[in-house]
Design brief:
homodimer, alpha/beta
């Protein structure tokens, strides 16, 4: 899944260059490329599909030159994760009705790749030839309020539990209770199932969406596929797979572990997981000289220099023609700032 | 005088592009050009000399295409204002021993141009054909601690006073006393005199410097001038005209007025005299959106956008490959920052 717009990381990410396409850590590979590289170790590259917005086809093919154009599924509109997954499932089903399927966001970070890939391989076995649905749950290391949680009930096999509930983002007090209980895991947004299982779940729980894609079943993989998707996709309900399917489905399990996972959802989460200088400052890409500065995250284009004095707890980001300075604790306002920027005349250099 | 290096405005000004060459206010003209334009209204352009460092010849000729190369006097080393003025006086004397002379910094701002030019014209009359030395004094509008002051004694003619003392930068308490007394004026660094008068003052008060330039008198205006200056100039004492001559000379007068003058010596002074939004924020060149911000000064390259949240009393400057964020009240530290930047490896993009 590579269709996000990443406005929370503006101006580092922009509409024309969202988070998944950025080389966040200066490693030379974007998050999308890192995700592709990771799965390529256990999935034949020709079996990897990328679902994204039409606007991003060129950048996807540029970043992943191994891909055949047919491996990129193009959404003509943003409709959240449920329609995206229904579309991909239909396509996979048309190629192999007995396939098992991993769904993964393309803009997350995994630092413990071996553990992650072992879990995926185990998970694929666990959902193969049955009606099990599996999510990857992350053992919480802090009472994070920015994530959804999964409550586990009885253990089925080692580290795999039946899911009791999916919960929305909790407040801090609740998050602490969750963490202390030992029963709750972060919802990583990674799902595993057979295509038959997920298609059957859509048929039952989101019948309108299901009907749209099943109707186009014979067109999958043909030259007529895109025209059909362009027609039917915008009419789909805008709904997440968590809310539309997982929270209501039976046979949902969670495979739990610590994979060095982060959704990189906010500057704050990026700050938390980055290397810091002795004063708690994080510099991404750029050189930084700090004087009387604490707990800031600074991200400038490569080769640039930041000289900062007397700043505590700020996000400082420059990219292209925009500079953002914002308190870390107020970063939820960045979306609003971006909306305001979009209202400016001549905003094309900034959005 | 256009030889300053302007490190207090780093990174907006840099060694390769000091303050006088910058279009500070986005008017399309640099401070040097504005100074040249201003004096051109009362001085024939061919009578304007620019004294600067050798490194800046190209940028001067580029910014002032009307100039003949011979009108640019090139210092091979920085030796403060006294040697600079001695050199210019010698050159002018060689062209016209009866000339009167205005000395002015090229990096100051004058917003009341008519009043200023009237004062200059009056001043030139006042020093013509006699041994008077005249400075321009600015009526203080605040107890500024960043300027030198001139104490006036009895009035000679309207707004022209005999000078009692020159004083260094006072502390705040003293500055308040100065201001309340009504006897003190800011020293603008603009001087008027006949070349004969200033040459005679040098002969008496700075005889070593005087001897060097008088010795090269016959070379002035010839092809041998630069070689002679390259030889003698570095050996001159490093001393200001205020300290070396004005504080000790007789017949020193001050012509006082309000010319909308600022030496633009610091971000703080630039802040004080710039138009502010209702929250007291100043934006130079760039677009700015502010949220919960007060009393900041922001200077980004033209066409750039700053989105700032939760900042109070900061300087935010970006230029080329450097970004500086610093509390206004700590701006005296910028020199130190620049020294530290100069110690970095690969500093050439920043200094």
């Amino acid at each position: 899944m590579a269709g996000g717009i990443g406005s929370r990381f503006w101006p580092y990410s922009r509409n024309s260059r969202p988070k998944q396409f950025l080389d966040f850590f200066g490693t030379g590979r974007s998050l999308l490329q890192m995700t592709f590289d990771r799965f390529s170790k256990i999935v034949p590259p020709e079996n990897i599909l990328i679902v994204s917005n039409k606007a991003y086809l060129d950048i996807i093919l540029e970043q992943l030159p191994l891909l055949n154009k047919k491996q990129v599924l193009l959404e003509p509109a943003r409709r959240n994760t449920a329609p995206c997954i229904a579309y991909a499932a239909e396509r996979i089903y048309s190629q192999n009705p007995d396939a098992v399927m991993v769904v993964a966001p393309s803009d997350h970070l995994i630092t413990k790749e071996d553990e992650f890939l072992n879990a995926i391989s185990r998970g694929l076995e666990f959902v193969s030839g049955n009606s099990n649905m599996l999510t990857l749950g992350i053992t919480p290391n802090r009472p994070e309020t920015g994530y959804g949680y999964i409550q586990a009930s009885k253990m089925t096999e080692e580290n795999i539990y039946k899911v009791k509930t999916f919960t929305e983002k909790p407040n801090l007090e609740m998050a602490k209770v969750f963490m202390d209980s030992g029963e709750f895991y972060w919802n990583s947004g990674v799902f595993l199932w057979s295509v038959k299982t997920i298609k059957s779940a859509f048929r039952k729980l989101l019948p309108d969406i299901s009907a749209k894609f099943e109707e186009g079943s014979l067109l999958m993989g043909t030259d007529a596929e895109q025209a059909y998707i362009d027609e039917c996709f915008p009419a789909c309900q805008n709904i997440s797979i968590d809310y539309g399917v997982m929270e209501k489905a039976q046979n949902v399990y969670v495979l739990c572990g610590d994979f060095g996972w982060s959704d990189l959802g906010t500057w704050g989460s990026l700050y938390d997981m980055s290397a810091k200088d002795p004063d708690g400052n994080v510099s991404l890409n750029c050189k930084t000289l700090t004087y009387g500065c604490k707990d800031n995250i600074i991200c400038l284009p490569k080769g640039k220099l930041a000289v900062l004095q007397g700043l505590e707890g700020y996000i400082v980001v420059e990219a292209d023609k925009s500079l953002l300075i914002c308190r870390k604790e107020d970063e939820q306002s960045i979306r609003q700032f971006v909306n305001d920027v979009a209202m400016l005349e001549d905003n094309k250099d900034y959005i």
